[in-house]
Structure formats: C-alpha cells, structure tokens
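Q: Second attempt. The first request was missing the SMILES, so the protein and adenosine-5'-triphosphate are both included now.
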Amino acid sequence: MLTIRNLSKSYGSVAALRNVSLQIPAGMFGLLGPNGAGKSSLMRTIATLQDPDSGSITFNGVDVATNKMAIRRTLGYLPQDFGVYPKVSALGLLDHFAVLKGYLNRGERADVVEALLRQVNLWDVRKRKLGTFSGGMRQRFGIAQALLGNPKLVIVDEPTAGLDPEERNRFLNLLADIGGQVVVILSTHIVEDVTDLCPRMAMICRGEVLMSGEPREAILAMRDRVWSKLVSKATLPDYQSRYTVLSTRLIAGEPLIHVYSEARPEEGFVAVDPDLEDVYFQRLRQHDAAPASRAAA
Ligand SMILES: Nc1ncnc2c1ncn2[C@@H]1O[C@H](COP(=O)(O)OP(=O)(O)OP(=O)(O)O)[C@@H](O)[C@H]1O
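A: Got both inputs this time. The predicted holo structure:
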C-alpha cells in the first residue's frame, strides 16, 4: 500500500500539488488529469526524484523521504520523456541497465534480460538499434527496464501519448499482466487508458485531487444525469451558456453534446449511459466552477 498524506509542492509561485492525499493499494491505479494537473510532479515525488514542500509518502509503512535508497530498490519507473541511446541495441542497453541495477553475475543477468525482452515482445528485435524502434517499441523497452529487479512499486508516466491504437493496446495489455501484488501507478490524460485498465483511480486538476475510488462506482453515480443531443454549430454556444455541457463530439460535422443535468434538459435530449469520460468532464467542470462559487461564498 502506498499512502500519500497532505502532499504539497510548489515551483516558485506555481502550486503543482495542493494537499494531495491518496491511498493506493496493489493493482493498477490510474492517475487521470489534464496537462499541467500535477501528475508528473506527483510521480517524480513518489519516485524520490524531488522532495515535497510538506506532507509525507509511505510505502508499506516505510517513509519515502527518509528511506530513499530502500524505496529506489523496490521501484520501477518509466518517466514521461524516456530517452534511449539511439545507436545501442535493445539487448545492449537493457544489459547495461541490469548492471546498474546490481545484476553483476553475467549468467544471471543474461537470463533476466532475456526473460524481460521476451515479456515485452522485443526478443526478436533485440539486436536492432534503439534509434530504429517505433514509439510503441521504445515504450515497451521502457517497461522492460522499469521491471528490472522485480519492483514492488511501478510508476508509468503518460506512457501511451503518441502511440497508435494497436501499439497502445499492446502496451496496456503488457501493463495489465504486471498487476498482482505490485502497485502500478499509471499517469495519463487519456480517459480510455484508465477505463480499460484500472480498477481504482484518482482524478487531479491544478494540483488538487477531484475524486478517488473505483471508476465503476463513479460511473454508476452519474446514471440518469447524462443527456445527449445532436445540435447545430450555430446553436452550440447557446447550449453551452444554458447547460453544463460535458463534451462535444462531431458526428459527420455536427456537434453531439453531452449535458449533465438531474432532469431532462429539454425536448430532443436522450438519456445516455454515462462513461468515465462523462465523469471526468463533470468533475473538471465542477472544479472550474468552484473558485467562483467559493469567492461568492
Ligand atoms: N520544474 C518546474 N519548474 C516550474 N514549474 C514547473 C516545473 N515542473 C512543472 N511545473 C509546473 O507545475 C504544474 C504541474 O506540472 P506537471 O508536469 O506536474 O503536470 P502534468 O499533469 O504532468 O502535466 P503534463 O501532462 O503537461 O506533463 C504545471 O503548471 C507546470 O507548468
């Protein structure tokens, strides 16, 4: 169990994390938020790459701030910008990372490296230079290095951004297989990543936790409150001013809107089964509205 209590972090006048508290059990945990929400700041702080201004993080009862080396030994981290040496082969670089991770026995290291390259389906291309890999292959290589040393805590920061649908699926399947007794935190701004993979999640925006829990429950709580209608582009601003429009998607060039409302907003709206994207946008809209209402109060 990873326990985060009242964590805050600022860069100069930018408050990246504001009093963040989360309980993260074993299994896949999705951390969902728009760009600039503070996801990477939280990931880097958990990964001991930066200190918080206040608050604490414990992993299975061990305080992260005062036991950085112990945490690093149990940590696997795939950062958002994972650079590789383009002229080195996958086999060569993973072997190098394995040495750094403490696998000094050559035979044992060869076995571990082979097992990981097979797990991420890169064994057949192990001798190719990393510079020739596609984005998806690079990310799978990134997961292989993150899994060196059997980590108990795996942090994956925005891994699917820029992957095509097939590579994304392959990558998510790989993550799903890790699961088990390991805590895996997947930070993303892509709602489907969380829907497809995570039994538990949190949403953050502007450094604050908007919700945490099970996506299923959050979706159920929105039932009978999401309505859709195909409108014209000309009338869209009017709908946006009168209703809480959660999302707008173009269907053959015309906007299909999802509106949050406790009752049918007006003629022509049909009730839809909410999904996690509706939950996400509803929380973001609520959060956007909050500062104004707080000020008014
Ligand atoms: N080193 C830094 N110095 C100054 N400001 C920073 C630094 N790192 C992040 N920030 C700011 O802190 C806020 C949170 O950034 P962070 O990268 O943690 O968000 P994020 O959710 O990971 O977003 P993204 O998906 O865009 O990376 C943003 O306003 C960002 O501009």
